[in-house]
Model the fold of this input.
Amino acid sequence: MKITNAAIGARIRQIREERGYTREKLAEYADISAEFLWEVETGRKGLKAQNLGKLAEALSISADYLLFGKSSFKENENVHSMIAALPEEIQQQIGKMITVFIDTVRISTKNNLESNFTDDEQGDWLFSRFCFMIIEGRSEIQNIFQKTHYLK
Done:
């Protein structure tokens, strides 16, 4: 596989536009100049590892995706992209919700979740239980939040 400046630049531009960032805003986030970013996006200049890392972090994407156009975590990229486009406060709340969901799964599994479910049915059941507990404001969710130090 041949890695070219043009291909890397095109991926950076595509992701920048998907995130709704202007070139100036991404340059600010990555601590590089907007002019340099333009040169990278057009393939006129390449990136040193440091700047590749800065851009990957600013775009919330893996450096291997910027380099190769694929990631070892491809199945998570779409979700990650959606979350990364949200304001920081909302991202933090989503992170807490994911943690609580994972803890709900662990606790439910520990409490002898019926083993005659298929994996898909088990996942659906756990997700439904989690959503129901949120809607109902169930104390189990509050307990999990308290156990994981998310509620003060």
Notes: The mean pLDDT is 77.
